[in-house]
Design a protein that fits this description.
694 residues; alpha/beta; six-stranded parallel sheet; five-stranded antiparallel sheet; 18 helices; 49% helix; globular; ferric-chelate reductase (NADH); FNR_nucleotide-bd; oxidoreductase
């Protein structure tokens, strides 16, 4: 379509221009040619030293984020009108499978190589320029000592460049990630890579200055300096101390064994950013401003959405400790498969939010949204025990759902979905989507053949397969569905005899008048309204910053007086936060009226007595299944005990020219499947990994 061609042309021009700015940033051309010429027009009275960097480093990403929202809105409308097409990225085949990077495809490898080359280029040019104009900061300072100081300073510059991209992967509702086919959960590994790299560079920068001040110049007192005319060294010391705490608790082993320590320590980032800004100054603040600005918009929208309580309709408690929570949702809310919903239960913990896969299908279940929860960790175990007690209502807050930009799984000729444990949950949503497509009224609807290979530890985990079909009053037609299920029980050699713990409990909850159905935070046209928030808040920030600088800061400096440097940074922080607060609140309140009106139309559900029913997969031979679709799925299932799936045999035996291979589960399983697909021995395999665990 025309808008796609226009967008691709715009994005290509932007990418080339923005890369040119980053390439020239550390060179003499930028410092001695571009900056002086542009300063005459931009830095005179309204923006002072921030003008050039605001134009070249802050404005372009904000423009793309705003325009990208319009593109995503048009793309969503066209996708809803027809079937979504598969991405044409042919380089998604795994190119490297190795620790500590995990599974890396050719596109990621190419961009990572370019980013590393850019960092090396920047460091080399910074050092070339600085070594040509060495400044001795103390009497008797030697040349090598001045160079040591210069290297330490420029390492901080490179770490700051990494920080410019750090917040983009964790901005869940941003338009920048879907524009390139990413989601916040699939791109979290980029945040981890950038976080480790920037932390290493900042540590070298800080240790270098400690060595310089302590052993070379005997000026350790400078660490406590808070200058009124330039950067604050003390703020840098405080930021470095917070960084060490955040970095030390973010390693994989600590995060797994002591998640709460990682979780709460990581939230020191707000204090860290506060001191960090005082240390980098107003000019270099412009480099990281887009990432922080978009993150703050997203964070504030999430706060507004999570203030209310979601209407919990029912809970399905499986015998293995897993749960399906079903919420009421606005019928206008639609989402793709493999979406994610963040859940908070105040009665268990008021601060913790946990992400879970949405297993319902927005086309099949218009007014309900379901998530699957497996009992891993203390929080989920407490939730299961809480739901097992007599309850008629449970207060739950939600954020999301956050969806991938498109769902291209259905375009394959056949699908092989390989899962381990709770990794089956994203595949439940895909299978439900395939069921919906196979029963659609349109003639000629073609769906792929599906092979689901799943590995469980115990027989009780087979109850997870009961989630393949929703708790719905309407019958589901599976006659057009080609589905084969191979289940492997790895820690048991035969089906347990006389196991009566196979009951599934279904509990219905009485809705509270204050509860609301899950809705899009900004209504039906959420991308357009997000674009309006981004553009209006950033323009408001620029306008207010220009007015404050022109009529408050400039007159002081014009008189020859010193305007405290830290006050300029405080103005930047305050005006950015105020602009985001005003623009976001205004649009959210305007949209909330429409969302509330639609939510009030959802009828209350009468409370019923909890029901118990045997799991279809745990006792298929002991009773005649009442549900014909359930019986069909059970008959399509082959269970093997005391064995693990032979993944190489399974994948190489796949017939057809276009086989989509999806894997979600333990790291070892994902890496094994990735290596098989990367070997090139089977050209028909198209790999994709789905997991929060990178």
């Amino acid at each position: 379509m025309r808008y796609r061609l226009a967008w691709q042309s715009f994005f290509l021009v932007f990418l080339v221009g923005y890369m040119l700015v980053w390439i020239l940033l550390p060179t003499k051309t930028y410092k001695n040619s571009w900056t002086p010429k542009m300063q005459k027009k931009l830095n005179s009275t309204y923006f002072r030293e921030q003008g050039v960097n605001l134009l070249l480093l802050s404005f372009p990403p904000m423009l793309v984020a705003a325009v990208g929202c319009v593109y995503l809105h048009l793309h969503k409308k066209s996708s809803s009108a027809g079937s979504s097409k598969r991405s044409h990225l042919s380089m998604k085949r795994p190119a490297m499978v190795a620790a500590p990077l995990g599974i890396v495809n050719a596109v990621e490898l190419a961009f990572a190589a370019m980013f590393v080359l850019l960092m090396i280029w920047s460091l080399a040019n910074y050092l070339y320029v600085s070594f040509g104009h060495l400044h001795m900061h103390t009497p008797g300072e030697k040349v090598w000592q001045a160079k040591f100081r210069s290297v330490s300073l420029r390492l901080g510059y490179i770490g700051h460049a990494c920080w410019a991209f750090l917040f983009f992967p964790v901005t869940r509702g941003s338009s920048l990630l879907p524009l390139i086919g990413l989601t916040s959960d699939s791109s979290i590994k980029y945040h981890i890579w950038l976080g480790h790299l920037s932390s290493l560079l900042f540590t070298l920068h800080s240790v270098g200055f400690i060595i310089y001040w302590w052993t070379m110049t005997d000026q350790m007192y400078l660490m406590l300096e808070w200058s009124s005319t330039y950067l604050s060294n003390f703020a840098g010391v405080m930021a470095f101390a917070l960084l060490l705490a955040i970095w030390a608790t973010s390693f994989d082993r600590v995060r797994r064994k002591m998640f709460e320590v990682f979780f709460y320590t990581h939230h020191l980032y707000s204090i860290y950013i506060f001191f960090y800004m005082f240390h980098v100054g107003v000019a270099y603040l412009c480099m990281i401003l887009p990432g922080i600005f978009l993150f703050l918009i997203d964070r504030y929208l999430r706060f507004l959405q999570s203030r209310g309580s979601a209407s919990l309709h029912s809970a399905r408690l499986l015998p293995n400790g897993a749960m399906e929570l079903t919420f009421a949702k606005n019928p206008e809310l639609s989402y793709n498969t493999t979406s994610t919903l963040f859940v908070r239960v105040p009665s268990i913990c008021k601060l913790q939010w946990h992400p879970f896969t949405v297993i319902s299908n927005s086309n099949m279940e218009k007014d309900k949204l379901s998530v699957a929860i497996k009992p891993y960790g203390g929080w989920t175990q407490k939730l299961y025990k809480h739901l097992s007690t007599p309850l008629d209502h449970l207060q739950v807050s939600t954020e999301g759902p956050y969806e991938p930009a498109s769902s291209h799984f259905l375009s394959h000729e056949s699908l092989v979905m390989i899962s381990g444990g709770s990794g089956i949950t994203p595949f439940i949503s895909i299978i439900r989507e395939i069921i919906h497509k196979s029963t659609a009224e349109e003639s000629g609807t073609k769906v792929p053949r599906v092979l689901l290979v799943t590995a469980f530890k115990n027989t009780a985990d087979l109850a997870m397969l009961d989630l393949l079909l929703p708790l719905s009053e309407t019958s589901v037609d599976l006659s057009k569905l080609e589905l084969q299920i191979e289940a492997y029980i790895t820690q048991e050699h035969e089906r347990p005899v006389g196991d009566d713990k196979n009951q599934i409990e279904i509990k219905l909850f009485r809705p509270n008048p204050s509860d609301s159905p899950i809705s899009a935070v900004l209504g039906k046209n959420s991308w357009l309204w997000l674009g309006a928030i981004i553009s209006s808040s950033f323009l408001m920030f620029l306008l207010l910053l220009g007015l404050v600088t022109r009529y408050h800061i400039y007159p002081v400096e014009k008189r020859g007086d010193n305007y405290h440097y830290s006050y300029k940074l405080l103005w930047d922080m305050f005006l950015a936060c105020a602009s985001i607060f005003v623009a976001t609140s205004a649009i959210f309140i305007f949209q909330k009226r429409n969302v509330s009106a639609e939510g009030n139309q959802i009828k209350n559900i009468e409370l019923q007595t909890p029901t118990m029913s045997p799991s279809s997969w745990l006792t298929p031979s002991d009773r005649e299944l009442e549900s014909l679709p359930q019986q069909s799925l059970v008959q399509s299932t082959k269970v093997q005990y005391g064995a693990r799936p032979d993944l190489k045999r399974i994948l190489f035996d796949c017939k057809g020219s276009d086989v989509g291979v999806l894997v979600c589960g333990p790291k070892s399983m994902r890496h094994e499947v990735a290596r098989i697909c990367a070997s090139g021995l089977a050209k028909n395999l198209h790999f994709e990994s789905m997991s929060f665990d990178w």
